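Dear H.,

Thanks for agreeing to be a second pair of eyes. The structure we're designing against is below in token form, covering all 293 positions.
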């Protein structure tokens, strides 16, 4: 029955029997057969089936919550068991701008202080499900109020408007309304970022006459450095680019955005590599001098 649950869990996670078959190196018919056997044993339907698509029923969703947590916990236990000869591996998922602008420049110090810990960093904007995935912690922005999870505040963030020095001089922006005539760098991962900023300034959002779309904040900074236009970024993560002279703030406006958090499962509070990393993070944050305005 474990094999049937594994097939079911893969089908729910990947959204199809074909994808689950590929992940488990089986045929789609084998996945379907195992799921039907599980349905027979439980006495209920787990999926609504239509042409080339499957959707979990209410019973399927309830079971998926259990199997997802169970298989993820098993994977973590096996991985940590295999690392028993050393202090352990710490896997964290970090949104790309935090990784490149803040975390990576400090990694040499962490490795020097804690050579016994193998740190695996995955830059990603994808929402990670800590109940189902073998990741120890994530760095994300938000409210910090996530049931069943422990949230450690890292920094308050503000939105800031950046451009290359040459572009800023050419645009000569004086007030928020001037942005309606500026080329804007938009982000596919955060398509509402610019409209929300305009609304916050009491302005009506309209599609800019000149625009370029990039993936996220990190790519937007690179485009701005090359004179493409004005980027919306996050302070203080963008501060190194400004301090290095690669970019300038085109308007003296920073808008409160959100808080950046390190988030992990409450059950992992005693995981030593995570405890060490949190203590190191806190020390790094406290060592950062107050930045001048």
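And this is the sequence the design step returned. I haven't edited it by hand at all.
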């Amino acid at each position: 029955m474990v094999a049937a649950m594994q097939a079911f869990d893969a089908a729910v996670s990947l959204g199809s029997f074909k994808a689950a078959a590929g992940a488990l190196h089986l045929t789609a018919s084998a996945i379907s057969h195992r799921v039907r056997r599980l349905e027979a044993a439980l006495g209920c339907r787990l999926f609504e089936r239509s042409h080339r698509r499957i959707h979990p029923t209410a019973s399927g969703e309830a079971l998926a919550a259990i199997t997802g947590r169970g298989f993820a916990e098993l994977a973590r236990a096996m991985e940590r068991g295999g690392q028993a000869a050393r202090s352990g591996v710490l896997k964290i998922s970090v949104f790309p701008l935090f990784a490149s602008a803040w975390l990576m420049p400090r990694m040499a110090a962490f490795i020097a202080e804690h050579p016994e810990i193998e740190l695996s960093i995955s830059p990603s904007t994808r929402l990670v499900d800590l109940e189902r995935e073998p990741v120890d912690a994530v760095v994300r922005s938000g409210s910090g109020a996530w049931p069943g999870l422990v949230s450690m505040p890292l920094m308050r963030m503000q939105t800031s408007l950046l451009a290359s020095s040459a572009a800023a001089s050419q645009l000569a922006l004086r007030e928020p309304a001037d942005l309606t005539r500026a080329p804007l760098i938009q982000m596919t991962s955060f398509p509402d970022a610019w409209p929300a900023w305009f609304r916050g300034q009491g302005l009506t959002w309209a599609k800019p006459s000149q625009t370029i779309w990039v993936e996220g904040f990190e790519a937007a900074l690179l485009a701005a450095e090359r004179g493409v236009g004005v980027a919306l970024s996050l302070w203080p993560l963008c501060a190194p680019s400004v301090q290095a002279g690669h970019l300038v703030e085109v308007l003296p406006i920073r808008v409160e955005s959100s808080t950046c958090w390190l988030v992990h499962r409450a059950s992992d509070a005693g995981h030593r590599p995570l405890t060490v990393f949190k203590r190191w993070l806190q020390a790094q944050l406290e060592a950062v001098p107050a930045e001048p305005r």
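Two observations from my side: The chain is about 40% helix and 25% strand. Residues 7 and 24 are 8 Å apart (CA to CA).

Warmly,
E.
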